[in-house]
TrEMBL record:
PROSITE patterns for the chain: ABC_TM1
Organism, as annotated: Montanilutibacter psychrotolerans
Any one Pfam family match given in the protein's UniProt record, by short name: BPD_transp_1
Cited SUPFAM superfamilies: MetI-like
Membrane-spanning segments: 97-117, 129-160, 172-192, 230-256, 276-295
A Gene Ontology term for the protein's cellular component: plasma membrane
Keyword DNA damage: no
Stated name of the protein: ABC transporter permease subunit
UniProt keyword annotation of Membrane present: yes
Length: 310
């Protein structure tokens, strides 16, 4: 219980530092949310600044914003005056969570079997071929992979739509395919390589050699004795994998025109929409902290020695 309370306190401090740093950097950036090529009359600028509390000193703006956040109010959007940040986040978060969650599940569903298969056939041509493909998947960044997928499957083959979101269930499913693949590709490659390296070490452990000498079948050795400890590094990798999915969603959602958190973050940063950017950062940061807590719990279940160590 004490450890859980300490982790919650650390999570709170992390989110506070993240929000404070983002607040300071946004205000330090040149330009403002209402700067246009044709400047508005001074009285209009003064009214907008007063409406959004931009006429106050910076410390007063920070304290007022923190007070709103403590009440669960992320504030009004500067560039979407008819919407609050809460409403924009509420519509965008499920979209990003669906794409990112499916991409991460796809990475695990493909990466783990590929890594286990390669470890069982270490040194053979199939192992080399699979690891070459994994290395290629890691080498191609998302901003290159996403347009290439559009060019191949949408423009050339006309199998899938080039972008968009929503529609009928079938249309929604078709719209998801390319973004999910673009998000999942590097994670599939990394998961496969990580699983292979871990399984090679586990399969050569002394206790497995002893079990093999007692006549246990290879299938029982793999599934009953090797798989669980061999996947511990994969469980630890889930946290950075989630961060990779979150950061990659900004590129993927822009390319495919998906109304998710990443796209709102990019548009908010370009338009100096302070409250929108801060709201996205806070929500994404909270999700990452929560996932880290869940991953720690999963690792403790997979290896009780980690619980004893703490």
């Amino acid at each position: 219980m004490k450890r859980f309370a300490a982790r919650l306190f650390e999570a709170f401090i992390t989110l506070w530092l993240l929000a404070t740093l983002c607040f300071v950097l946004l205000r330090a950036a040149p330009g403002g949310p209402f700067d246009t090529e044709k400047a508005a009359p001074p009285e209009v600028q003064a009214a907008l600044a007063a409406q959004y509390r931009l006429d106050r000193p910076l410390p007063a703006q920070y304290v007022a914003w923190l007070g709103d956040v403590a009440r669960g109010d992320l504030g009004p959007s500067f560039q979407y005056p008819d919407y609050t940040v809460n409403r924009l986040v509420a519509t965008a978060l499920p979209v990003s969570a669906l794409n990112g969650g499916v991409a991460l599940l796809l990475a695990l569903a493909l990466g783990i079997p590929v890594g286990v298969w390669a470890a069982r056939r270490a040194g053979r041509w199939s192992d080399r071929l699979l690891m070459f493909g994994a290395g290629l998947g890691l080498a191609v960044p998302k901003f290159v992979a996403a347009p290439l997928l559009v060019l191949l499957f949408a423009v050339t083959l006309h199998w899938l739509p080039a972008g968009g979101w929503g529609g009928t269930p079938l249309e929604s499913l078709r719209n998801m395919v390319l973004p999910v693949i673009a998000l999942a590709l590097p994670n599939i490659a990394y998961c496969a390589r990580l699983t292979r390296a871990s399984m090679l070490e586990t399969l050569s452990a002394d206790y497995l050699r002893a079990a093999r000498a007692r006549g246990l079948s290879e299938a029982r050795l793999l599934f009953a004795h090797a798989l669980r400890p061999g996947l511990l590094p994969v469980a630890a990798w889930l946290s950075p994998a989630l961060i990779n999915v979150v950061t990659g969603s900004a590129v993927v959602e822009q390319v495919f025109g998906i109304p998710g958190m990443g796209r709102y973050f990019v548009q908010g940063a370009l338009n100096r929409d302070y409250t929108l950017v801060l709201g996205v950062v806070l929500v994404v940061g909270a999700v990452i902290v929560l996932i880290n807590l869940l991953v720690d719990a999963l690792r403790g279940w997979m290896d009780p020695r980690l619980q004893d160590a703490t």
